[in-house]
Amino acid sequence: MKGDALNKGISSIYKMCLKYTSMCAFLAILSLSGAYKITPNVIEGVPGFLNITTAPFIKIGSNYYFIETKGLNWFAAFESCKQIQADLIAFESLEELQLISQYLIYNNMAAYYWTSGTDLAKQDKHVWFSNGQPVASDLWRKGEPNNENNEEHCDELKIEPGVGVGLNDRRCSYIDGYICKAPQPKTASFIVW
Ligand SMILES: [Ca+2]
Ligand SMILES: [Ca+2]
C-alpha cells in the first residue's frame, strides 16, 4: 500500500514536470544533492496573492466565466466557448444561476444569454449539452420550458430585473449573448525544505 501511494506520488510529480520542465530540472538537481526535501502541493483555483491574470475569464463565486454580450446563435456560441478551452455554461445549482444573474444585473448587463441546456436530442428532456446532466427543474422561469410553436429547443438565461431570472427555452437560431465556464484551474507549488 505504501509503495502504491509512493508510486502515485512520483507519477503525479512526473506529470507536473511534463508541464513545468525547467522548474522541475532545477528541483531535480536540488533533490539529487540530497540536502533538501521537496513536497509537491496541488490546490484548486488560483490564490489571490499570486496576482496571476485569468483573462478573458472573470471569477464569480469560486468559478471562472467568460461573458459575451455580442450575440450568436446557440451552435455558434457553443463553438465559441470551445475555442477558448471552455464550455457553454451548465448551472450546477440555483445558487450559481442567482450569483451570475446578480453579477450581470449589478454591472448593467441584464439580458439574455445562451446556456448549454437543450432538448434537441429528445423533446422535453432538457440536458446540459456540455456534460450530459439533466437541467434541474428549479432553474426555470415560471411557465417555462413551454416549447412555443413546437420550435424552442435551446435554453437561455433570461434576466429581467424586477421581474425575474431563470431559464427559458428558445429557438436555437435566435441571437443571444452567451456565458462560457472555464474548467477549475489548479495551482501547483513545491515546498523545498
Ligand atoms: Ca423543446
Ligand atoms: Ca420558452
From TrEMBL:
It comes from the Eukaryota. InterPro entries: C-type_lectin-like (IPR001304), C-type_lectin-like/link_sf (IPR016186), C-type_lectin/snaclec_domain (IPR050111), CTDL_fold (IPR016187). Residues 59-181 form the C-type lectin domain. Transmembrane segments: none annotated. Gene3D superfamilies: Mannose-Binding Protein A, subunit A. This is C-type lectin 37Da. It comes from Drosophila suzukii (Spotted-wing drosophila fruit fly).
